Amino acid sequence: MRVCAAIFSLALIGVASASSAHVTVTSPDATAGGFGKLVFRVPTESETASTTRVMVDLPAKTPFAFVSTQAKPGWTVSLTETRHDKPIKVGDFTLTKTVSAVTWTANGSGITPRQFDEFSLSVGPIAKAKSLSFKVKQGYSDHSTVDWDQVQTGKTEPEHPAPTLKLIAEKPQQAKSTDHASRGLAIAALAIAAASYLLGLRNNRRHA
């Protein structure tokens, strides 16, 4: 029984490790229609080679007007731009070219086996959608590559899923204004209450 339990535990660890080894994308603040930071987490799955190149394809149908990269020591970053024959509208901006891909290349050893690293972008405006998927090409020091570009369509996760970010709906401008107004009224009410309290204390002292 103990042997079976040990084998079962190892199997579970193997499944968890395989699923956690995928390239993923997260964001602390990205909202549909707004600006935000994208964080791509890249683990090295190979037992013998290091990750030395990471290329992220940005959504072609919903490009970003602005793309900037976070400084990353030990890596060189390059942006690939696509020119458009006809100007395209992205949010409030009209553009003739957009960034279509970002590539990080290691200057040294890169991401060695059993390690991971993170690569960040600041982008916007973000498409007003429920989610965004990115294609990522991971290059290794032994010249092999892994394409993370399979979009999940059912319950079963593909072998190399494309990193997908679920977006939070942007709060309507009217709601934002209402929130600010409500906060202002609350602060004003507290100030009036404090002033009334102090005035009451002064009057009591005078009568005393």
Please explain how this structure is put together.
The chain is an alpha+beta fold and about 210 residues long. Helices cover about 25% and strands about 40% of the residues. The strands form 4 sheets. The protein has a 5-stranded antiparallel β-sheet with strand order 6-7-4-10-11, with no helix packed on it. The protein has a 4-stranded antiparallel β-sheet with strand order 1-3-8-5, with no helix packed on it. It is globular. Mean pLDDT is about 80; it is low at about 1-20.
Class derived from helix and strand content: alpha+beta
The major β-sheet equals:
5 strands, antiparallel
Order of helices and strands: HEEEEEEEEEEEEEH
Fraction of residues in H or I helices: 25-40%
Low-confidence stretches: 1-19
Report the span from N to C terminus.
84 Å
What's the average pLDDT?
82
Strand order of the largest sheet: 6-7-4-10-11
The helix tally amounts to 2
Number of separate strands: 13
SSE layout:
Layout lengths: L1 H19 L3 E3 L4 E2 L3 E8 L7 E7 L8 E4 L5 E16 L2 E14 L9 E9 L6 E3 L1 E6 L4 E4 L15 E3 L1 E2 L3 H35 L1
Parallel strand pairs: 2-13
Antiparallel strand pairs: 1-3, 3-8, 4-7, 4-10, 5-8, 6-7, 9-12, 10-11
Describe, in short, the structure shown:
This protein has 208 residues and is an alpha+beta fold.
